[in-house]
């Protein structure tokens, strides 16, 4: 068993389970996700039986699919995972939860970071710690909240989007998003999208320096010639993607305009 007090975390989580987007204060929503994120991290620590965690938490809906999904990849010890005794650290996951459809979407961070690693700045290629800074589902539809939650992140971040057509794409940003009226960011930024053949990244071309433009009404990544590589509105529910000079990217979504089903921002460090 780890040094983390799973019983205390479980009790704290149970008290916050009623808190969802639109219900409860921003502080409660943030606290709930921090607790849940800590619990999920324990699932990746060798020697922490999955059955013990489920028992402690009363099998919350948010965790059961994590344990049931792809047992061989997670390699989690304990009867819930078929009794595997393998102690290897399982992959982390982006977890998307659509309450209306009761459907989870998983994007394996281990797969992503291995694919992205050659494109990352040299100093971040050994990054092993991933932390969720903002989630549309957990923190609500609010660009103001997004800016507030990511402002203390001192390193780069990864923007991940899932649209209504189940396309997954986003951007690597060398610094956190912040409201303003001018472009910022460096040539370390790039756009990416998940394809049937793996993840594809679009690096900076050097044609301009229109990396990040994040105002109170929208977020835009990449620009030039009146186009944006990725643009998301202030309600965080609609956007569009087209080729832009900054990254010479293909459209990231299946269609130029898309409906945003989930959006998450992850920070990471060595």
Compact description:
The protein is of the alpha+beta class. The protein contains eight helices and twelve strands.
Structural topology:
Blueprint: H1 6-16, H2 26-43, H3 50-57, H4 64-68, H5 71-74, E1 93-98, E2 103-108, H6 109-116, E3 129-135, H7 136-139, H8 143-150, E4 157-163, E5 168-173, E6 190-195, E7 198-203, E8 212-214, E9 218-224, E10 227-233, E11 238-240, E12 257-269
Antiparallel strand pairs: 1-2, 3-12, 4-5, 4-12, 5-6, 6-7, 8-9, 9-10, 10-11, 11-12
Written description of the protein model:
Strand 6 (190-195) and strand 7 (198-203) form a beta hairpin. The longest helix is centred in the N-terminal third of the chain and has 18 residues, at 26-43. The chain has 270 residues and is an alpha+beta fold. The protein has 2 domains: 1-90, no CATH class; 108-270, no CATH class. Strands 3, 4, 5, 6, 7, 8, 9, 10, 11 and 12 form a 10-stranded antiparallel beta sheet that branches. A two-stranded antiparallel ribbon has the order 1-2. Residues 65-110 have low confidence and may be disordered. Helix content is 24%, strand content 29%. It contains 8 helices and 12 strands.
- In total, how many domains does the architecture comprise? 2
Succession of helices and strands: HHHHHEEHEHHEEEEEEEEE
- Give the uncertain stretches in residue-range form: 65-110
Q: What's the main sheet like?
A: 10 strands, antiparallel
Q: How many beta strands in the DSSP annotation?
A: 12
- Roughly how many Å apart are the termini? 25 Å
Count of helical regions: 8
Radius of gyration in whole Å, from Cα?
A: 19 Å
Secondary structure class reads alpha+beta
Q: Given the C-alpha coordinates, what overall shape results?
A: globular
How much is the average pLDDT? Answer: 74
* Beta fraction: 25-35%
Question: What kind of assembly state do the chains in view correspond to?
Answer: single chain
Q: Helix amount, in percent?
A: 10-25%
Pfam family, one: TLD
Family: Belongs to the OXR1 family.
Keywords: Mitochondrion
InterPro entries: TLDc_dom (IPR006571)
């Amino acid at each position: 068993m780890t040094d983390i007090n799973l019983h205390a975390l479980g009790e704290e989580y149970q008290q916050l389970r009623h808190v969802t987007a639109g219900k409860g204060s921003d502080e409660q929503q943030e606290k709930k996700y921090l607790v849940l994120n800590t619990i999920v991290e324990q699932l990746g620590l060798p020697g922490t039986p999955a059955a013990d965690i489920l028992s402690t938490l009363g099998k919350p809906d948010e965790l059961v699919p994590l344990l049931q999904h792809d047992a061989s990849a997670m390699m989690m010890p304990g009867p819930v995972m078929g009794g595997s005794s393998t102690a290897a650290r399982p992959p982390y996951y982006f977890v998307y939860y659509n309450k209306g459809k009761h459907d989870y979407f998983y994007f394996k961070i281990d797969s992503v970071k291995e694919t992205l690693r050659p494109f990352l700045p040299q100093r971040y290629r050994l990054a092993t710690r991933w932390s969720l800074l903002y989630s549309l589902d957990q923190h609500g539809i609010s660009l103001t909240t997004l800016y507030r939650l990511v402002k203390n992140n001192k390193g780069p971040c990864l923007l991940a989007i899932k649209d209504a057509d189940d396309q997954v794409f986003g951007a690597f940003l060398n610094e956190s998003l912040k409201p303003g009226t001018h472009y910022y960011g460096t040539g370390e930024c790039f756009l990416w999208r998940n394809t049937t053949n793996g993840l594809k990244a679009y690096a900076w071309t050097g044609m301009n320096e229109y990396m990040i433009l994040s105002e109170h009404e929208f977020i835009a990544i990449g620009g030039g010639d009146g186009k944006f590589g990725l643009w998301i509105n202030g309600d965080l529910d609609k956007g569009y993607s087209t080729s832009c000079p900054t990254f010479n990217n293909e459209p990231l979504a299946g269609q130029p305009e898309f409906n945003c089903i989930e959006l998450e921002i992850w920070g990471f460090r060595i």
